[in-house]
């Protein structure tokens, strides 16, 4: 359960000297963000101090149900999914209990299919929206509510609403649902360690205490003043310097399938936090070793517009021996193969002058996953200071949301045939 | 089943004049690729003329089995997965028959979990590798074979090998497996309409004939000389011009979850085909409307380094009415919501001067999916000519593959602790 941090630096990447040359800029970034915590503007770091006892109650409450349904978009759901899959692994619904479904889109086929797979009477429903007014969340929830009203007596006991206000809060108060609050100073994409993540995750067998203990270990490291001792500050600085050298793409490449959804969580965090005012670095998730057969050619030999972060897991929870019959290549564990592939890719990228960084997890469990998620929250917060943007708002999407509501009012779904 | 093509052009994007100004360059690209077909160098377009009768036999053969296992990497498996999920939809294994698993990594936990979920005796196994020497494919297959040898009599009847040579071909010939050939002049990422895709897909209830008929409709369109009548040539030209204007990222954004795996297939096609010699455009898959809550902020207000392609589906196979209780926003179908969101996002990106293109499918079915995949194969082939790269090889990854084999021989898995 040790997290190791190493980096490959070089003339084409970031050198130790480049970092030292930044002088006060790094310390100012760190202090700038710490000030926002101190004055209460930003609250996600305080989530680690909350009493976790309540989650035992939720877990117990869950025992009456066979299914979990989580309704939410973006930061209301991506972190939960990342931790669920990161710990419970692949194909969970094909063998695990309780089964869980994530309604995170306005795709009608998805909603219809999920409704065919669950028994709503036996389903505990988490409906999550910070604003309480998220279009897709309200739409999906209203569909579910319509069915519950017709079919299930006292259905309000099936619903847990997690919100800070808006229409969802009104609905919850009127309907008598269990209601949890999201603190005003915790924005959606930094909310995984609040009830948003912890309430449903405690029903999915996740050890919440270890998750938070991992985040706390990382919190200590991320308070260190020396950038070389502070992984989040170090990674923020490297990414900032690389962005200034025209690396406008940040690739995250975990060599463990369980970390793919973590990558999707990171994608939102990095894109929505830094992408504004003409600034921003586009996040891209690659899965090792799989995507070596898909994207590696481009990374190695395409434009030098990327910085790559490897995440490797030294010890897997299960392993199996292979035999592939040629020469002395017999009898390796699959874990040895995937890890050799990570190393070979790292060496090849370095040879091709593609800057890369590596995070090593001895094992992937609640503690290390808690460390990893929290590290990225801190890295993103520090990066906001370095890039000079507000990493806690998302003004441009608000504009698009208003337009959608207007088009819906007008009945304009864009289905008009366009000639040609 | 009409495919509509429209584009949003403008000063910040590509104007009709920009395209006209290219003069012979476009026609030369088209002719350059057509020449490669004529002289037999490139074979994927000929796949459409193959007799499809054999697939009825394979389908019948499948009736003896309860599970399908497909082992392969990159182009050997991504197209099959794209069409399977594109037609059979989400959560297929939780209600569909036969269940299907894709072994497409060297992740030990994934392989172990799949082995726990299937009964190998009742499993039809497709092992797919053009070269016949793909490390992960051989590794996974050897694990399966070891188990079969111990547990299943006459297990060779469970295996269909699809390859062009190498160690896999030797194994197949020695073991007496059913053996299909991949033509030498069809490279992996263009092989979905060969046995690579069609053999397993015919066992998964896909209407192969309609799939191919869609590809044929598109083939005719893609032979048109006038770029404004030829969707693949038009899209290739737009992407090329945008790349020259420093748009180094190509976002594909389907508004239908069933098309997500199509996006993953496209990712390999675009990245591996064009990413070489310092050239290339990085593909990124976003899922609408979901990723509006994740990446849209960056697309709208971040650096102007992207061209976005929307794919929308006008009519979904299932739909459901919602009610979300405020003002006159009551009672929309979810399909209306997702399609309004597509339109709003398109309008917002255009307002923010982000160039975007739109592909409209009236419905998503075998015919339109066949059209879509074939269109992208042709677009990529034309783009190779425009970008001036060989879009059918992947020299850089060959280097990394050799290095992995060497590290494995040396027993170097990179697990040594690196001091911080």
Quick take:
Chains A, B: Keywords: Cytoplasm, Gluconeogenesis, Glycolysis, Isomerase. The structure is a homodimer of 420-residue chains. The first copy, chain A, is α/β, with parallel strands linked by helices and 420 residues long.
- Helix percentage range of chain A: 40-55%
Number of helices of chain A: 15
Total separate domains of chain A: 2
Q: Return the structural class of chain A.
A: alpha/beta
Q: What order do the SSEs of chain A take from the amino end to the carboxyl end, as H and E?
A: EHHHEHEHEHEHEHHHEHEHEHEHH
CATH topology of the largest domain in chain A: Rossmann fold
Radius of gyration of chain A: 23 Å
Please give the largest β-sheet of chain A: 5 strands, mixed
β-strand percent of chain A reads: 5-15%
CATH architecture type of the largest domain in chain A: 3-Layer(aba) Sandwich
Form type of chain A = globular
What's the CATH H-level homologous superfamily of the largest domain in chain A? Answer: Glucose-6-phosphate isomerase like protein, domain 1
Number of strands of chain A: 10
What is the oligomer described by this structure?
homodimer
| Averaged pLDDT of chain A | 93
The rounded distance between the terminal residues' Cα atoms of chain A is: 60 Å
CATH class of the largest domain in chain A: Alpha Beta
User: Which spans of chain A of ≥5 residues are poorly predicted at pLDDT below 50?
Assistant: none
Largest two-chain interface: A-B, 132 and 133 residues
List the helices and strands and how they pair.
2 copies of one chain form a homodimer.
Chain A: E1 3-8, H1 16-21, H2 24-38, H3 54-62, E2 67-71, H4 78-88, E3 99-103, H5 108-117, E4 123-129, H6 135-151, E5 159-163, H7 166-175, E6 178-181, H8 195-202, H9 208-221, H10 231-244, E7 249-254, H11 260-274, E8 282-285, H12 296-301, E9 306-313, H13 334-351, E10 356-361, H14 366-387, H15 395-410
Parallel strand pairs in A: 2-3, 2-4, 4-5, 5-6, 7-8, 7-9, 9-10
Antiparallel strand pairs in A: 1-10
Catalytic activity (chains A, B): alpha-D-glucose 6-phosphate = beta-D-fructose 6-phosphate
Family (chains A, B): Belongs to the GPI family.
Organism (chains A, B): Methanotorris igneus (strain DSM 5666 / JCM 11834 / Kol 5)
């Amino acid at each position: 359960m040790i997290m190791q941090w190493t980096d490959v630096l070089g003339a084409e990447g970031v050198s130790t000297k480049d970092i030292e040359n930044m002088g006060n800029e790094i310390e100012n970034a760190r202090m700038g963000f710490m000030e926002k915590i101190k004055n209460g503007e930003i609250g996600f770091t305080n989530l680690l101090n909350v009493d976790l006892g309540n989650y035992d109650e939720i877990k117990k409450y869950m025992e009456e149900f066979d299914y979990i349904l989580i309704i939410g978009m973006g930061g209301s759901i991506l972190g939960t999914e990342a931790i669920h899959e990161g710990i419970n692994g692949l194909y969970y619904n094909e063998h695990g209990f309780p089964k869980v479904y994530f309604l995170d889109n306005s795709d009608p086929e998805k909603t219809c299919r999920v409704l065919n797979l669950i028994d709503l009477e036996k389903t505990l429903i988490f409906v999550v929206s910070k604003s309480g007014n998220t279009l897709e969340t309200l739409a999906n929830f209203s569909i579910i509510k319509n069915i519950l009203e017709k079919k299930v007596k006292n259905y309000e006991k099936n619903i847990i609403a997690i919100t800070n206000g808006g229409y969802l809060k009104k609905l919850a108060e009127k309907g008598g649902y269990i209601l949890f609050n999201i603190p005003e100073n915790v924005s959606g994409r930094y909310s995984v360690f609040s009830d948003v993540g912890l309430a449903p995750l405690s029903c999915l067998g996740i050890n919440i205490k270890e998750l938070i203990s991992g985040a706390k270990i990382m919190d200590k490291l991320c308070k260190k003043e020396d950038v070389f001792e502070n992984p989040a500050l170090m990674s923020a600085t490297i990414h900032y310097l690389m962005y200034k050298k025209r690396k406008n793409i940040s690739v995250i490449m975990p060599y463990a399938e369980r970390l793919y959804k973590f990558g999707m969580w990171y994608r939102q965090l990095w894109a929505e936090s830094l992408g504004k005012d003409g600034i921003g670095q586009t996040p891209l998730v690659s899965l090792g070793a799989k995507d070596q057969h898909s994207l590696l050619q481009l990374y190695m030999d395409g434009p030098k517009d990327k910085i790559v972060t490897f995440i490797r897991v030294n010890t897997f929870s299960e392993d199996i021996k292979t035999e592939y019959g040629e020469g002395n290549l017999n009898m390796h564990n699959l874990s040895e193969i995937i890890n050799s592939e990570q190393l070979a890719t790292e060496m090849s990228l370095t040879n091709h002058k593609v800057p890369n960084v590596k995070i090593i997890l001895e094992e992937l469990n609640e503690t290390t996953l808690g460390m990893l998620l929290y590290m990225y929250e801190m890295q993103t917060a520090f990066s906001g200071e370095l890039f000079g943007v507000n990493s806690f708002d998302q003004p441009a999407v608000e504009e698009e949301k208003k337009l959608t509501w207007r088009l819906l009012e007008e009945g304009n779904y864009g289905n008009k045939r366009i000639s040609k």
